[in-house]
Amino acid sequence: MTGMLPDRRHELILRALRSDGPTAVVALAERLSVSRATIRRDLGQLEDEGLLRRVHGGAMPAEGGDEPFTEVASLRVAAKDTLADKCADLVSDGETLLLDIGTTTHRLARRLRGRAVTVITSSLAVYEELAEDPYVQLVMLGGAVRRDYRSLAGFLTEDNLRQIHADRLFLGTSGIRPDGNVLDTTSVQVPVKRAMIAASEQVVLMADAGKFPGTGMARVCGPGSLDMVVTNAPTDLATRSALQAAGVEVAEV
């Protein structure tokens, strides 16, 4: 474990908390072969990012969690289709696209059938939607399978994303705060979303009316990381002001 990168250490800490529940600093230090001081610094950083909760002598998984894919797929379908139509219109043939996980990006994938584009994704639902399409060049990111959420995640997914560059990312979210911060309910997915943002020339956030203000325990990014927000709801004054101050285009459909 000597010389382990912080990102890898953080991944192992979060994995330990998910599998074992509340875990002491001393146990994490022994498990990762690092000092207790290093673990305490890591826990402080991960808590600041909303990925865990510090308790006396250790840490525990952050409260909250996302809903399984099948439970969300039937919610606000018309709104998701409206957003998907708008986002499909943004795409030009020949582009390389990153599609985030989630039911809204899945609806977008349906509208990319027959298009001469490259789609890179960690979404099993997107893969299944486009796998038989002869026109779409489909690239599947590696990672650990999250069956209930139809996705891949983890350090392998993040490593894959460091090797690519996309023209455009279509990003999902569980909520946008009035200050423009983008949230997610799934701690394991946050590092993947951040890696997708870093790998993309343009970031388009797909957010239906239920995402304002929305919920989420972990901050994915600030408004400065976005280029466009596509929504079917009039954004409130505070949120719109925060987005516009960061130079984000808001497309209401």
From TrEMBL:
<comment type="function">
    <text>Repressor of the lactose catabolism operon. Galactose-6-phosphate is the inducer.</text>
</comment>
<dbReference type="InterPro" id="IPR037171">
    <property type="entry name" value="NagB/RpiA_transferase-like"/>
</dbReference>
<feature type="domain" description="HTH deoR-type">
    <location>
        <begin position="6"/>
        <end position="61"/>
    </location>
</feature>
<dbReference type="Pfam" id="PF08220">
    <property type="entry name" value="HTH_DeoR"/>
</dbReference>
<keyword id="KW-0238">DNA-binding</keyword>
<dbReference type="InterPro" id="IPR001034">
    <property type="entry name" value="DeoR_HTH"/>
</dbReference>
<keyword id="KW-0678">Repressor</keyword>
<dbReference type="InterPro" id="IPR014036">
    <property type="entry name" value="DeoR-like_C"/>
</dbReference>
<dbReference type="InterPro" id="IPR018356">
    <property type="entry name" value="Tscrpt_reg_HTH_DeoR_CS"/>
</dbReference>
<keyword id="KW-0804">Transcription</keyword>
<dbReference type="InterPro" id="IPR036388">
    <property type="entry name" value="WH-like_DNA-bd_sf"/>
</dbReference>
<keyword id="KW-0805">Transcription regulation</keyword>
<protein>
    <recommendedName>
        <fullName>Lactose phosphotransferase system repressor</fullName>
    </recommendedName>
</protein>
<dbReference type="GO" id="GO:0003677">
    <property type="term" value="F:DNA binding"/>
</dbReference>
<dbReference type="Pfam" id="PF00455">
    <property type="entry name" value="DeoRC"/>
</dbReference>
<dbReference type="InterPro" id="IPR036390">
    <property type="entry name" value="WH_DNA-bd_sf"/>
</dbReference>
<dbReference type="InterPro" id="IPR050313">
    <property type="entry name" value="Carb_Metab_HTH_regulators"/>
</dbReference>
